[in-house]
Amino acid sequence: MKYVLIVIMFCVCCGVGYFFSIKYMKRKRFWASLIALADKLSLEINFSRERLRVLLANFDGANKKNLLEIDERFVDFLDKKCELTNEEIFKKAACLKPEEKDVILLFLKTLGRSDVENQTKEIQTFIARFNEIKLACDVEQKKYGGLSIKLGIVAGIFCAIILI
Amino acid sequence: MLEKILPDNFHKILSEKVNMRAVNEIRLRADRPVVVNVSGKNFFLCESGVTSNVRGALYASKIIIEDVIFRASECSIYSVNEQIKKGFIVTDEAVRIGIGGNMIEENGRIKTMTNFSSCNIRVPHVVKNCCLTAFPYMVGEHGVENTLVISPPACGKTTFLRDFVYQLSERNLAFNILLLDERGELDQGINSKFTDRIAFASKKVGFENGIRSLAPDIIVTDEIGQMEDVEAIRYASSCGVKVLASTHADSMETFLKKPLFEGLLKEKIFKRFVLLSKRNGPGTFEGIYNENLARIYNSR
Asked: Is A160 inside a domain boundary?
């Protein structure tokens, strides 16, 4: 019974560590996917010139999953006649920092508002900014994501030692 | 039709308090009252509908105009930039929106338009049977005559052309008709069984490609305004394809002064001229003329 409890405690501690590391992984994946989306928009706006709604709907599944529903909420906004707000767009994106949300909101607000040349330039500028944020996320993930898991394991071992 | 593009309050008033079937145009100008053209007359939009008194009129703003254009482009201005360069957008429901703003030119070519300051929303109508007065004069034993519809803007030229195509289809006159829809607004609501469509192409390209690829009996097109268009008509006529077209002029006298049509008139390519006005509302027949410019129908 004691050993079972030790194993359970160890797993719980590791789980908690992993849970805290997920946030960093999510953020990293989110920015990678957002860059992929921006790249696709830049390319498609130049070539197919398809409507924004169609481009967002055709964005590939794996990356779409990582976008924390921001793309879907933005498409919903396109159908409404209201102001694009932080609360609406980032309902499922609690892991993003306020200043990051502001950058994304600005990016979304510029979409569809200008001709091909200017739109492409604007998107490229945002891609550069997104890349900077993604690099910071990579560093964070390596630093704090790994640390959370390690701390979870250490806590698990510590609990096990106490219980023994 | 307009709910997607107009601000909610404007649309609510228009749909609830104004007879939309009689509305021809809605003009939005930055910081100016909204003007609605009802049955050929201009009124101001107000909370209770339309009024001729500017007091109580609703005003448009630059933000509203930009939003109307943004929504008309389905939130993708870049996708309609080629149209914007020509000064208008046509929505999927064939609502044509003329745009005023700053043209950006580079190396003598228009690059785009920015700083939108006004827009003119043309509400398309399907008026069944509006061409019937002219119909017997335009369709004879040898088929459809080359016809030019003449009128000032907003007098029902496009509506006339649409109805004519519809009437041919209704009578099962199985002519292959090519709609050369340069601005994407001609095709709306026609529902014809014998119609092909080439949209957003210039007259020159549309006539050449259309005749080569679709072998039409009749080409229907809107607003002849350049020498290139006249050459395209001449080319179609030489290929044995009938042409039904329209142009701007407020009377036959003004029309005859247009150097653009001098050659076509001499060659008698057009066999019928239909003159429209908005004297009794858009689509009023002022007269029908033959190739010798003799009046064969008089409305007065």
From this structure: no
Take residue B49 and report the two structure tokens written for it: 């509908």
Is B71 in CB contact (< 8 Å) with chain A? yes
Which of A71, A109, A113 should be substituted to probe chain B, the one whose Cβ sees the most B Cβ atoms within 10 Å?
A113
- Classify the complex by whether its ipTM is higher than 0.85, answering yes or no: no
Count Cβ neighbours within 10 Å for each residue of B256-276 and write b for 16 or more, e otherwise: eeeeebeebbeeebbbbbbbb
Any domain includes A158: no
pTM over 0.80: no
Of A125, A122, A84, which is closest to residue A105 (Cα–Cα)?
Answer: A84
Contact between chains at B79 and A51 (C-beta distance less than 8 A): yes
- Please tell me the distance from the alpha carbon of residue B93 to that of residue B164, in angstroms, as a whole number: 20
Identity at A133, one-letter amino acid code? I
* B112 close to A (CB below 8 A): yes
Cβ-defined contact of A51 to B84 (cutoff 8 Å) = no
Give the model's confidence band at B300: pLDDT under 50 very low, under 70 low, under 90 confident, else very high. low
CATH of domain B8-122: 3.30.450
**Has residue A1 been placed in a domain?**
no
Which one of B78, B112, B116 would you mutate to disrupt binding with A, by most A Cβ within 10 Å of its Cβ? Answer: B78
Domain count, chain A: 1
Phi/psi at B220 (nearest 5 deg)? -110, 125
CB atoms within 10 A of CB B115: 12
End-to-end CA distance of chain A: give it in Å, rounded. 12
Contacts of A3 (CB under 8 A, 6+ apart): none
Domain B135-298 class in CATH: alpha beta
Domain of residue A110 covers 26-143
Domain residue extents for chain B = 8-122, 135-298
pLDDT in tens, B114-152: 899 999 999 888 788 899 999 999 998 888 999 999 999
CA angle B260, B261, B267 (to 5 degrees): 135
pLDDT at B191 over 80: no
**Is A115 inside any structural domain?**
yes
Q: B183: closest CA among B196, B204, B201, B159?
A: B201
